[in-house]
Amino acid sequence: MGNSVRLLVVEDDPHMREALNEVLSRGLVREVLLAGDGEEGLEMVKAHSPDVIISDLKMPKMDGLTFYKRAKELTSAPVIFITAYGTVPIAVEAMREGAFDFILKPFSMDVLEEAVSRAIRYLGAKKGRSPAPKEGPKGVNFLGESPAISKVKRLAERVAASKSTVLITGESGTGKEVVARFIHQLSPRKKGPFVAVNCAAIPDTLLESELFGYEKGAFTGAVARKPGKFELAQNGTILLDEISEMSPVLQAKLLRVIQEEEVERIGGKGPVKLDVRIIATTNRDLEEMVEKGDFREDLYYRLNVIPITLPPLRERREDIPLLAQFFLEKYSAENDRHFEGFTEEAMEVLTSYHWPGNVRELENVVERAVVIADEKPLLDPNDIFLKGRRGKESNKGAQGITAGMTVREMEKALILKTLEEVKGNRTKAAELLGITTRTLRNKLAEYRAEGEKFPWEEE
Fold first, then answer.
1. Cβ contacts of residue 341 below 8 Å, gap of 6+?
2. H or E segment at 241?
């Protein structure tokens, strides 16, 4: 669906406006509209009916919140706010008003691309082109009917009403963040913000300021006050994803935040009281890390008040048909394709596979099939690409892989072929490949250094 999306950027800084235009025009959306202030943005909403809106918050003539409130009378498009002047009251008000996401400057373009991709997926579901979840609160697709996943759902439903800290464990790709959002949406905090922080994706030198915020002048480059993720989650829920990757120094500071229910910005003169529900996730054995001295025992017990363990997909195989059909309809809608389901043989391939990457791997496999397969009613086994299994494309050498190639050459061929298929959209390519956008960016940098040129960047 991404290539059919019209996106509006409302930003008073011309340099930022052009930077956003350049990044978002690289195949992520069909058309990017630019407005220099809220008034011009409203005129463009009336004239062009954008599907997604990105807006600054602090602008002349009309601030971002006023623009948003007036734009809501004209459109239901998801709105992503960006600002260098964010404060907790503005962030909370934006989210209460229904903002889709809130990103503080400075931010990486990968973060923005991911937010826009999520908005596009949300848009497809909202227009009825993805099935509504059969269970769970609105907007959370926590799918599954197996005994193992039903047990998890019942536990999540029971703990949602409390403020107790939850520790969700499970292999990578099992859906830990989905469960966290499920709990939030069932809780009394559902009207408050849900703020997710990937502790593994942010360098230790930046994670402290991301979590706790800082005051203007606290260090070189701190040109304005920036509230941390804990403050942005006020009256809502904060998800600390991959908590096991947090450094010992930050573990100690997090422990104090949990104990005192307050946070102190870097360079701040006093603490800020918090009313935030904490959910942490990890794919590692924290008890073993505690025994080895790699994770604080006192923090572990503070986090592990309510433990929830997610089963791997191989232990809930009866959920595979439901999940596969959901992903098929979701990505068929996003890519304007018209697949109805799977042949019995294709479903047998899916249900018999061991799924080391769990639900995330299943999603990537189905999305890859939707993007690459020939148009027809049902996907067949030749459209399913799994580790150790060959589909029709590998038989034809469509991935550029031949006998005698090194593993690195095969990896490069697969990465470049995937990027070609998605017209250079790095976020989507990373999802299909099952890697992070950072890893993909580093691989591309290596290839550029070798003199590789990418056709999608020359179009």
1. 325, 328, 377, 378, 379
2. strand 237-241
What single letter denotes the amino acid at residue 207? L
pLDDT digits (tens, 9 = 90+) for 420-429: 777 788 888 8
* Domain segments of the chain as ranges: 2-126, 147-311, 319-394, 397-459
CATH class of 2-126: alpha beta
What is residue 284's three-state secondary structure?
A: coil
Which pLDDT belongs to residue 205?
A: 76
Fold category of 147-311 in CATH: Rossmann fold (3.40.50)
Could you report the per-residue pLDDT of 373-388, keeping only the tens digit for each?
A: 888 889 999 889 886 5
Per DSSP, the residues of 60-115 read SSS-HHHHHHHHTTT----EEEEESS--HHHHHHHHHTT-SEEEESS--HHHHHHH
In this structure, what token pair is assigned to residue 305?
């008040």
Can you tell me which residue has the tokens 């930077």?
A: 19
Distance CA 171, CA 358 (A): 8
CB 277 within 8 A of CB 237: yes
The CATH label, of 3.40.50.150, 3.10.20.30, 1.10.8.60, 1.10.630.10, for the domain at 319-394 is 1.10.8.60
Lowest mean pLDDT among 24-28, 156-160, 285-289: 24-28
Per DSSP bridges, beta strands 306-309 and 166-169 are parallel
Per residue in 113-144, pLDDT tens? 877 887 887 776 555 443 333 444 555 678 88
Contact criterion met (CB below 8 Å) for 38 and 68: no
In angstroms, the Cα distances linking 169 to 103, 177, 287, 454 are 27, 10, 11, 39
